[in-house]
């Protein structure tokens, strides 16, 4: 989905949302070092990681989101960037943790496999951890019932084609197992007042 879409989401977001994502905490293998929050939005997860002891770079392509996150005290090191460019902007092997909480489902799986994941994993130190949260094919409250056989839901926003990808566990394994052994759990969370079905994925980058 486009930058224009996300700028509008954040422009129209009123009150400070509650911190919803502490279900990520049990997945974390360590609580120190450098973390990159990819598609951080307002940065609630960045805040959580900072409380746990990480130094956190909070990246998003929406300046609006980053500004709100700074204002609300969630973000202290913002990086405005398209996540597809992060690999070229940051030093290789410089992060202990990559977190992508519902920010990697806007891309076809071929692009994820060929470009996005290689460039992101190049930022991770060997033995570093990746934690991600992904739309599940069970996520019917958020469009999974309208997805095609590949789990792709395409619609139109202000004349622009948008893609939202819903994942099965085997599809996640195919994408991520080349980087390390994956722990994947089906879970659900509350988003904007509705139940959202997700997969939580954690892996340690092969040395
Ligand atoms: C569903 S929100 C999740 C935000 C946050 N991680 C959370 O859990 O609340 C998706 C976020 O990804 C960002 N995003 C989407 N596509 C992006 C891209 N190509 N590059 C950088 N950020 C992107 C959006 O601006 C938005 O903040």
Structure description:
The chain is α/β, with parallel strands linked by helices and 207 residues long. It has one domain: Vaccinia Virus protein VP39 (Rossmann fold). The protein is built from six helices and nine strands, in the order H-E-H-E-H-E-H-E-H-E-E-E-H-E-E. The strands form two sheets. The chain has a seven-stranded mixed β-sheet, with helices on both faces. Strands 6-7 form a two-stranded antiparallel ribbon. It is globular. The model is unreliable at 14-19 (pLDDT under 50). Residues 6, 21, 39-41, 44-45, 60-62, 65, 82-84, 101-103, 106 line the site of S-adenosylmethionine.
Give a nutshell description of this structure.
The protein has one domain (3-204): Vaccinia Virus protein VP39 (Rossmann fold).
**Low-confidence spans: pLDDT under 50, at least 5 residues?**
14-19
CATH architectural name: 3-Layer(aba) Sandwich
> How many structurally independent domains?
1
Cα distance spanning the termini? 34 Å
Bin the helical content: 25-40%
Order of helices and strands: HEHEHEHEHEEEHEE
- Mean pLDDT, nearest integer? 89
């Amino acid at each position: 989905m486009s930058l224009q879409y996300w700028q509008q989401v954040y422009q129209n977001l009123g009150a400070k949302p509650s911190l919803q994502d502490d279900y990520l905490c049990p997945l974390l293998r360590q609580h120190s070092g450098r973390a990159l929050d990819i598609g951080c939005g307002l940065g609630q997860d960045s805040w959580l990681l900072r409380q746990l002891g990480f130094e956190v770079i909070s990246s998003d392509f929406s300046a609006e989101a980053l500004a709100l996150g700074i204002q609300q005290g969630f973000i202290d090191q913002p990086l405005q960037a398209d996540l597809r460019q992060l690999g070229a902007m940051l030093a290789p092997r410089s992060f202990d943790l990559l977190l992508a909480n519902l920010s990697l489902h806007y891309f076809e799986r071929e692009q994820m496999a060929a470009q996005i994941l290689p460039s992101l994993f190049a930022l991770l130190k060997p033995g570093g951890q990746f934690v991600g949260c992904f739309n599940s094919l069970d996520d019917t409250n958020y469009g999974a019932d309208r997805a095609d056989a590949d789990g792709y839901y395409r619609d139109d926003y202000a004349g622009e084609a948008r893609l939202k990808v819903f994942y099965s566990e085997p599809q996640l394994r195919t994408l991520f197992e080349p980087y390390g052994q994956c722990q994947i759990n089906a879970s659900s969370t509350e988003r904007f007042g509705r139940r959202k079905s997700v997969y939580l994925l954690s892996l340690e980058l092969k040395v």
